[in-house]
Design goal:
The protein has 258 residues and is an alpha/beta fold. It has a single domain (5-238), classed as Aldolase class I (TIM Barrel). It is built from 9 helices and 10 strands. It has helices at 26-36, 58-61, 79-93, 114-126, 139-148, 169-178, 192-200, 210-213, 218-238; strands spanning 5-7, 10-12, 16-19, 40-44, 68-72, 97-100, 130-135, 152-155, 184-186, 205-208. The strands form 3 sheets. It has a 5-stranded parallel β-sheet. Strands 6-7-8 form a 3-stranded parallel β-sheet, with helices on one face. Helix 7 links the parallel strand 9 and strand 10 (205-208). The longest helix is centred in the C-terminal third of the chain and has 21 residues, at 218-238. The model has no long low-confidence stretch (mean pLDDT 92).
Length: 258
């Protein structure tokens, strides 16, 4: 089992992806990202500047690093809005690796509009984008997105920023079985143990933002997330023991001396 995470034409050694929102400043964003060991940072291009060289630009802080920027379409509520945003972003930055998200409920749940997401995915795939698609934890929709051209499926663990962790562990497994592209658990991660569980379930990677950015010590939490993802991945590859409703002696009773 390869430890290289392959998303379309891109390859990564880290299986932790971090966000760039909710930090007090770009310096803290940079420090936490480096501490996390992540090689990708997602950026809401409607909210965080990476395109205007005349204003403070987050990309300037990462010059000389190996961190790949992952523009996302947070704030878009229709397929056309997302398509237009990514076209403009690619023209300004040259970046074609994107996180596609089209939000259907902006008032309470921030749940995605999966119909609009699929529409946008079909268009953007034909235009050569490498698409990581944010969606709900539905294996049927996951397969539809793969068929529409998504290079990675990003099911929510629970509502964005909620910190509730994975609310339906079975669906992570079902989505892994339904698609052949990487499955990256996104949204709702609250602490390091949530990330470890996601990886132990077989997720190919984890994306988290709020859990790091709003921790009392973002740098320390970033490092904790790094180790949690590594540990969860190793545990998944090692293969856990089956659960049993009864005890099993740790030491065999056969051949006892007395």
């Amino acid at each position: 089992m390869s430890d290289i995470l392959k998303i379309g034409k891109y390859e990564f050694t880290s299986r932790l992806i971090v966000g760039s929102g909710k930090y007090p400043d770009f310096k803290t964003t940079y420090d936490a990202t480096i501490a996390s060991g992540a090689e990708m940072i997602t950026v809401a291009v409607r909210r965080v500047n990476i395109t205007n060289p005349d204003e403070e630009n987050l990309m300037d802080y990462f010059k000389g690093s190996d961190v790949q920027f992952l523009p996302n379409s947070a704030g878009c509520t229709t397929a056309q809005e997302a398509i237009t945003l990514f076209r403009l972003t690619r023209e300004a930055t040259g970046i074609d690796l994107i996180k596609l998200e089209v939000i259907g409920d902006t008032a309470k749940t921030l749940y995605p509009d999966v119909i609009e997401t699929i529409k946008a995915c079909e268009v953007l795939a034909k235009e050569g984008f490498t698409i990581m698609a944010y969606t709900n934890d539905d294996p049927i929709i996951a397969k539809r997105l793969e068929d529409a051209g998504a290079h990675a499926i990003m099911p929510l663990a629970s509502p964005i920023g909620s910190g509730l962790g994975i609310q339906n562990r079975f669906n992570v497994v079902f989505i892994k079985e339904a698609v052949s592209v990487p499955v990256i658990v996104d949204a709702g991660i609250g602490t390091a143990s949530d990330a470890a569980v996601a990886m132990e379930l077989g997720a190919d990677a984890v994306l988290t933002n709020t859990a790091i950015a709003q921790a009392k010590n973002p740098i320390a939490m970033a490092e904790a997330m790094k180790h949690a993802v590594i540990a969860g991945r190793v545990a998944y590859k090692a293969g856990r023991i089956p659960k049993k409703p009864f005890a099993t002696a740790s030491s065999p009773t056969e051949g006892m001396i007395f």
